[in-house]
Amino acid sequence: MNPEALRKLFEQIKKRRLSPDDAVERLRHMPFEDLGFAKLDHHRALRQGMPEVIFAQGKTPSQLVGIFRRLAAHGGNVLATRATAEQYDAVAAALPDNLSDKAARAEYRPLARAIVLKRDRKQRGKGVIVVVSAGTSDIPVAEEAVVTAELMGNNVQHIYDVGVAGIHRLLAHRKALAKARVIVVCAGMEGALPSVVGGLVGVPVIAVPTSVGYGAAFEGLAALLGMMNSCASNVSVVNIDNGFGAGYVASLINRR
């Protein structure tokens, strides 16, 4: 349930196309729906402008199916992050008979490890979000940011494998960076790339440390600390491998 859906519901009642009892039934699960193993926050889109997103890691396929099916029943987009192919197979098998929009199908994005159901294609972002990865090994985290931002109504471009070991590769994309309204930069190893990008642009840069690197990278801790100590004042940092969080915050910024 989002503001647009709520307005449509009120208009249907006003025009007597929907009875008050039917409207009450549709609103019955606000602000949340208790499935026993999960409490679904259907009110989140009204509060925050974005629907609840499923963190699939640690959930059984049947639990994920139950959550995904109920979120899908409300008609909006649905995103499950950190999902496996096994979980996707369970969701894909369960959804076709439960969707009002038969043309919509859940898709699995293996690089991002995300299950996506996209029905609302309205563009809500005011500009372009650019997602940058330092290396090819950082692409899975970057793709999670891309999928998240796209599903939340943004025009997203990506620039991959442009790390500081060959800085000329990044500089070849100066025009694309200059046109961005928000930039997400994913980097492992020493995590230097967000500072470089931050020094080139005058927009918010969201740094995502990845767990890519050798032993002294400490599974992303070295990149995290490096990014938090960035001398580029337009750089802010999310948690290690948190492409979803970066894509979400970038979406909020791009809507303002």
Q: Biggest sheet, in brief? A: 5 strands, parallel
As a percent range, the share of helical residues equals 25-40%
CATH architectural designation of the largest domain: 3-Layer(aba) Sandwich
Mean pLDDT: 89
Question: What is the general shape?
Answer: globular
Ends apart, CA distance between termini: 21 Å
CATH fold type of the largest domain: Rossmann fold
The count of strands amounts to 11
Notes on the structure:
It is a single chain. The chain has helices at 3-14, 20-27, 44-48, 61-72, 85-94, 139-151, 167-171, 174-179, 193-200, 221-228, 243-255; strands spanning 33-34, 39-40, 54-55, 78-81, 107-109, 114-117, 128-133, 155-159, 180-187, 205-209, 235-237. The longest helix is centred in the middle third of the chain and has 13 residues, at 139-151. Helix 6 (139-151) runs parallel beside helix 11 (243-255). The chain is globular, with a radius of gyration of 20 Å. Strands 8-7-9-10-11 form a five-stranded parallel β-sheet, with helices on both faces. It has a four-stranded mixed β-sheet with strand order 3-4-6-5, with helices on both faces. A two-stranded antiparallel sheet has the order 1-2. With 256 residues, the chain is of the alpha/beta class. It is built from eleven helices and eleven strands. The protein has two domains: 3-117, no CATH class; 128-255, Rossmann fold (3-Layer(aba) Sandwich), CATH 3.40.50.
